[in-house]
Design brief:
215 residues, Rossmann fold
Length: 215
């Protein structure tokens, strides 16, 4: 058995990944970009899952086409793995992603509104969900947490592995950057992201139920 942390970008998960390192051996599996060179490096460095144990956690975004989690590890459903997922409201996630792109690429020419709308139903894309399958996909995760309550997730992992609890330090504070979005773009995003909202709402219900059961 081993742990796998599906690190959805811009959901406060960098802080969680850092905190998990206090309790488990962290192994990183991140594709740096969609460039051919980075993709080649990513393919070459595919982890050997058979070497991972209950003291290990594998972390990655698995968010680019061709490297989604089920594409990277088609055998995953047959393995004894405890998958961890943390989600954040879709609009907050998308806005944070736009801020991050503008902060790391000041020469970006696309308007913030266009960048926001390009992130419609991002969760569905990364998780491989449809309206008919999103509940089953969320249920395949051993632990589902929420970005606003990451301390609960890290405490749950610590208790599970028998490790002392530690406070989560906040990392990657790109949300402090000011970016303006038009009301029309926000309304359009919300209307088009009904599937992502359903995914988040269901994940939140799962997270709240699990926390209530262990409180």
């Amino acid at each position: 058995m081993f742990y796998l942390f599906h690190h959805i970008p811009k959901t406060a998960d960098t802080s969680v990944r850092d905190a998990l390192g206090r309790h488990l051996r962290v192994h990183l599996d991140y594709q740096l970009s969609a460039s051919p060179a980075d993709r080649a490096d990513f393919e070459r460095d595919r982890p050997d899952l058979s070497l991972l144990t209950q003291q290990d956690v594998l972390c990655g975004h698995w968010n680019l086409p061709g490297s989604r989690l089920w594409e990277r590890f088609p055998e995953l459903d047959e393995l004894d793995v405890r998958k961890i997922l943390i989600l954040r409201p879709p609009l907050e996630t998308a806005m944070s992603g736009v801020r991050y792109n503008l902060q790391t690429n000041p020469a970006a020419t696309r308007a913030p509104d266009a960048m926001l709308l390009a992130r419609v139903n991002y969760f569905a894309s990364v998780l491989g969900c449809t309206r008919d399958s999103y509940r089953e996909r969320i249920d395949s995760y051993w632990h589902v947490g929420l970005a606003g309550r990451v301390q609960e997730t890290v405490d749950f992992i610590a208790d599970t592995v028998g490790s002392p609890r530690w406070p989560v330090d906040r990392l990657n504070t790109t949300d402090a950057m000011s970016v303006s979005f038009s009301p029309e773009a926000v309304e359009t995003f919300l209307h088009r992201s009904e599937l992502d909202q359903a995914i988040y709402d269901y994940a939140a219900a799962v997270a709240h139920a699990a926390h209530a059961a262990t409180a």
